[in-house]
Amino acid sequence: MEIWWAFLILGAVVGFVAGLLGVGGGAIMVPVLTSLFVTLNFLPEHLLHMALATSMASIILTSIASARTHQKHQAVLWPVVRLMSTGIVLGTFGATFIASLLPTLPLAIFFSCFMAYVALQLLLNIKPKPSRGLPGALGMTATGVGIGGISALVAIGGGSLTVPFLTWCNVRVQQAIGTSAAIGLPIALSGSIGYAIAGWEQVGLPQFSLGYIYLPAVLLISAVSFFTAPLGASLAHKLPVPTLKKIFALLLLGLSAKMLHTILGS
Fold it and tell me: How many domains in the chain?
């Protein structure tokens, strides 16, 4: 029962953070799920792949709820979402199979390094100077492929890449966050399908798994995050977000270090 409560609490936290900061909940989910899956005695060689896949599937409802709330504030640029979605789907779907071929340790190191980049970006409040407009259809598609591919490898909704990119292209921060939330849906859907297919023939996966996706965790996390994501999105206009970002960055560093320690010790 403690594990189920842990999934519910995790869902509450990641939903709120995803809505508030526009950063995919996978940044928190992957390290925490890795530790919880160790407790459930999952095979070490499947730990991180299942954490990535389960996190990706859990982002589906979170991104829907967050995007709906941002849309109420007219903060979603739907033409941008449409232009990037093709590349997003191709990049995310393809990268899930690359991730499934990588051993756990190199994948964990890549995840931790990327989270360190995200944390540094948040701590230093690094923002690219708005210096140009949005590229054409080909450029948007190519950008989508890159964002989708990295998002699949680290199981995030793409916010840590999409928001800086859109800001660089002279998109207002609020609209960049809202548009990133909407882009999180095709990332989550294509990533979930890819991880389900990639893990379909794997031996030793636990009961109630769909490929690499552990369905009980997805259901419990999503059941709560669907309601806390709109709360975070609404409070984004009221709370001292820069301060919260710095706290979140320190949390990311701690969780990533803990995940590496868990994998090295398993």
Answer: 1
More confident residue, 92 or 2: 92
Domain residues for the domain of 46 are 2-265
In the block, residue with structure tokens 């829907």: 64
Q: Are 192 and 57 in contact (CB under 8 A)?
A: yes
Total-model pTM: 0.83
Burial 150-183 (b: 16+ CB within 10 A, else e): bbbbbbbbbbbbbbbbbbbbebebebbbbbbbbb
Sequence-ordered list of residues with C-beta below 8 angstroms from that of 58, at least 6 positions apart, any chain: 11, 14, 25, 29, 217, 218, 221, 222, 225
How many CB atoms neighbour CB 6 within 10 A?
A: 18
Torsion of the alpha carbons at 131, 136, 140 and 142, rounded to the nearest 10: -110
pLDDT (tens digit per residue) in 91-146: 999 999 998 888 878 888 887 787 787 777 777 776 666 666 788 889 999 999 99
Q: What is the DSSP string of 224-242?
A: HHHHHHHHHHHHTTTS-HH
